[in-house]
Amino acid sequence: MTHPDTEAFDCVVVGGGPAGATAAHDLVVRGRKVALIDRAGRIKPCGGAIPPRLIKDFDIPEHLLVAHAKSARIVAPSQREIDMPIDGGFVGMVDRDVFDEWLRARAASAGAARHVGTFARVDRDARGAPSVVYRARDGREVSLRARTVIGADGANSAVARQEVPKGGKPRFVFAYHEVIKSPAANQMARPAAYDGTRCDIYYQGQLSPDFYAWIFPHGDTASVGVGSAKKGFALRDAVRELRQATALEGCETVRSEGAPIPLKPLKRWDNGRDVVLAGDAAGVVAPASGEGIYYAMSGGRFAADAVEEVLATGQVKALARARKRFMKAHGMVFWILG
After folding, report:
1. pTM of the model
2. Is 78 helix (H, G, I), strand (E, B) or coil?
3. Within 111-234, where are the H helices?
4. Cα separation of 190 and 7, whole Å?
5. pLDDT tens digits, residue range 239-266?
6. What is the SS3 assignment for 76?
7. Nearest CA to 50 among 296, 228, 314, 266?
8. pLDDT tens for residues 43-89?
9. Closest-CA residue to 227 (of 219, 216, 238, 217)
10. Helical residues (DSSP H) of 111-253, grouped into ranges
11. Cβ–Cβ contacts within 10 Å for residue 78, how many?
């Protein structure tokens, strides 16, 4: 049985990751009535790097940064290592469980209504107006009436499948990482190839035939991961091999996570009437580098701008401007890295 919510929202945002939480916050501070639906307990596998421009543009407080990576080491197939300083002085490292929840809490403190549940579908009344239906943790279906919807529900976006089928089929890299306790020199049988101020990126076929592997510092922990678009490639085995090669096999594993990551923006992000996509749902993770948090939040902001324009003017064609503005700002990066 579906339980309708008596409230009507200017926008219902599906997905509380960086894109959705940013979009919800941007709309609610403009005075819009916003609901944010998020599925509790999920942590995306992610290196957790955020550049200084993100910290500045989205007012991220220093206490969320668990480490400052001041250089990057690129390891080539030949085993040659190249150390490079990071443009801007450093890249901030965040733990996604803490970082994402802080973004959701910021949106809620600004006035967004938080709902915990899993997106089920978009229903429409006789006039075609949408209601977002989600399954609450107790199994009930709850329906939220909306003027507009932002789908920020990840790479396998159910919102996109239902509402924007002409957006195209996303291309995925499947990522897996293990969060480990950072090595302490006096606890290791042999010195670990690890620096708590450096991001290590491995372009080596045995670790990934078509993407890369990584070791990223997170203060007391580290992320050791790999990605590949090749079906059947043993991601767990690759991570085990990387940990053995870098003397990290003895470090305690805190948790492991896996998920698909899109590597190409969809050709279309909106349904031409009341739904627009953002973040992984729109396919905005940079190829080759895998940078996703900044582009997710940037896409969330552009989606919020487009929705605000629709709400203010009634011109639904404004939804398409989210993608146009994003590609104008970042399209060259995606083209070059692609």
Report:
1. 0.91
2. coil
3. 158-163
4. 61
5. 999 999 999 999 999 999 898 888 788 9
6. coil
7. 296
8. 777 788 898 999 999 999 999 999 999 999 999 998 899 998 887 78
9. 238
10. 158-163, 235-245
11. 8
